[in-house]
Amino acid sequence: GKWAGGKKWDRDWLHVEDDVPTYFEGQDGSKNPLAVHVVAMKKTKRESSDDSGPAKKKTKGAGDNAEMLAKIKREFGSLESGDRKGVIKEWVKEWYCYWDEDYDTGKGHVFKPHLEMTKGGVVRTKDWDVLADNSAGDGYKVLKEIMAIDKAGSHGPEIGHGDESDYPWMPFMIPWTDGKLTPVSLLKKLNIHKELRDDDAVALLDDDEEEDDSDEERGNISVFLDKHKETVYFHTGSEKLCPLPVFAVAKMEGMNLVAGFMGGIVHT
């Protein structure tokens, strides 16, 4: 074994702090520091604790997210589920099914689980977690864009496409890590009834007939879609249900979010 001052180097003579030896005591009571050894052991200990896996991407702290969430709540209302309104409420049990006369709308579904709305009026899914793959700042930026359009009430012409109701467009935002945005991928994400995601049920829409109009005449929803690269504008379920869902949404650049507007079209 090792010796210090003529006596065996053990815990009686070796002084340890936080599992790191600091000095040994000589026979004459002198303290003999182990500076080099301490530095080496501390470095080894630090490297061991840091070597738990690949370096993690730096993200904003919980405090930053909490502050931004508070700002979202002040400006756009709570992101928690609130009361359903309009077609979101009707699609729970007050809609009409045409593909199966025996399909009880009180037990059946359009979306499963049913779509919900935040307390601020944004359409969302039940298992909604926008912070799982996004920062609260991302959510704020998107909400600021779509809620400004909603608040202005300048969506342009009514939903159209034969709609006989006065249902408005409603702001819509969901997390998205599902690849390319298409009508079918969106409908699968929302788990709409299989009858409503068939190719013969989905109808793509556009506003080419209005392309020569000014932005004000075209409405902010068309302008919103023009601002983004990956967009879908469609309705589904014609002759299969009433009201039928209509979407005008975009994949938000640099974020894991799909946002925009949705509504319902009533045909009689």
Write the layout of secondary structure elements.
Elements: E1 3-4, E2 7-8, E3 14-17, E4 20-25, E5 31-33, H1 35-50, H2 62-76, H3 86-93, E6 96-97, E7 116-117, E8 123-124, H4 136-152, E9 170-175, H5 183-189, E10 202-204, H6 215-218, H7 220-227, E11 230-236, E12 241-242, E13 244-251, E14 257-265
Antiparallel strand pairs: 1-2, 3-4, 4-5, 6-12, 7-8, 9-14, 10-11, 11-13, 13-14
Helix pairs in contact: 2-4
Q: What is the compact description of this entry?
A:
The chain is an alpha+beta fold and 268 residues long. 28% of the residues lie in helices and 22% in strands. It has a five-stranded antiparallel beta sheet, covered by helices on one side.
Describe the structure.
With 268 residues, the chain is of the alpha+beta class. Helices cover 28% and strands 22% of the residues. Helix 2 (62-76) packs parallel to helix 4 (136-152). It is elongated and about 105 Å long. Mean pLDDT is 78; it is low at 1-9, 36-59 and 209-218.
Kindly state the percentage of residues in helix.
Answer: 25-40%
Structural class: alpha+beta
Widest sheet: strand ordering: 9-14-13-11-10
H/I helix tally: 7
**Percent in strands:** 15-25%
Largest beta sheet, briefly? Answer: 5 strands, antiparallel
**How far apart are the termini?**
96 Å
Give the overall shape.
elongated
Task: Give unreliable regions as ranges.
Answer: 1-9, 36-59, 209-218
SSE order, one letter for each helix or strand: EEEEEHHHEEEHEHEHHEEEE
Question: Mean pLDDT, as a whole number?
Answer: 78
Radius of gyration: 30 Å
